[in-house]
Design a protein that fits this description.
single chain, 280 residues, alpha/beta, 8-stranded parallel β-sheet, two-stranded antiparallel sheet, globular
């Protein structure tokens, strides 16, 4: 099995053992109400909780991309992030800091002003933003502006798919990884994009085939926590989707996931420990 590493500020971070990325949403309208953190005390408490429960990476977002979410102006996204990132840095300065954004200038601000370690882009390099609406973020040569920015910043970059099938996901990943490499981008993490551009059935088919994405020889991140593919299938709600999340996280680990992006950190850490014990 390949052991991946990430360059985090000049130091190698090993993914030989899967790790947990805890979600911190500085938004009033994320789909899971329990993840919304707006006050200073709530943001500080969540950052501390992620680390205390075993999370390695804190993923801070300020723009909900769920269907039906409100648009957020770039300046407002930046302001929310400035508030949240300063608190996270104060509370957990040793944590790896990821910023969830598809906007190049927001990514630049997060890295240059706060030393963010990872950019987590859910737009597939500018294809979609809120509620799968198409974005405009490429020049005449077809190179996404976010690709130019992250390659200039030289921080690890999470490329998420919004394609419906494994075939389409692989084809787009191959093309976009080549674009990133041509710009000198070194660390790339692939996210199959569960819940984005896929039907309920397509989400499960992709998960069932996910190990085939390892042909790209890049680490895989899975963000499946409390999503509609769980609560719609089980006819429940995001609040009641923890058990389903744990089941799917466990399956994802057996299919090669290196990073679990989750709301419930302790439970995901336990998944990793159990699955790792089977392989020891």
């Amino acid at each position: 099995m390949t052991h991946y590493t990430l360059n985090i500020k000049g130091r190698l971070f090993s993914l030989a053992q899967p790790c947990v990325m805890g979600i911190l949403n500085a938004t009033p309208d994320s789909f899971f109400a329990g993840s919304r953190k707006l006050t200073e005390s709530d943001i500080a408490s969540r950052a501390n909780e992620i680390v205390e429960q075993g999370g390695t990476i804190i993923d801070v977002g300020a723009f909900s991309t769920r269907p039906g979410a409100n648009d957020v102006k770039e300046r407002d996204e930046m302001e929310r992030l400035r508030t949240a990132l300063s608190i996270v840095q104060r509370e957990q300065p040793a944590a790896i800091l990821s910023v969830d954004t598809f906007r190049p200038d927001v990514a630049r601000m997060a890295v240059e002003e706060f030393g963010a370690d990872i950019i987590n882009d859910v737009s597939e390099g500018g294809v979609t933003g809120i509620a799968n609406e198409r974005l405009t973020g490429s020049r005449d040569d077809g190179m996404p502006d976010i690709f130019r920015m992250v390659s200039r910043l030289q921080v690890p970059y999470i490329l998420m798919s919004v394609q419906p099938t494994l075939h389409d996901t692989l084809m787009v990943f191959a093309r976009k990884v080549q674009q990133l490499r041509s710009l000198g981008q070194k660390d790339i993490i692939l996210d199959p994009g569960f819940g984005f551009g896929k039907t309920l059935e397509q989400n499960y088919l992709l998960l069932n085939q996910m190990e085939r994405l390892l042909v790209m020889d890049l680490p895989l991140l899975v963000g499946i926590s409390r999503k509609s593919m769980i609560y719609q299938l089980l006819d429940t709600t995001p609040d009641a989707a923890l058990n389903g999340t744990t089941v799917l996280n466990t399956i994802a680990l057996t299919k090669g996931a290196s990073i679990l992006r989750v709301h419930d950190v302790r439970e995901a850490v336990e998944c990793i420990r159990i699955v790792q014990s089977l392989n020891s």
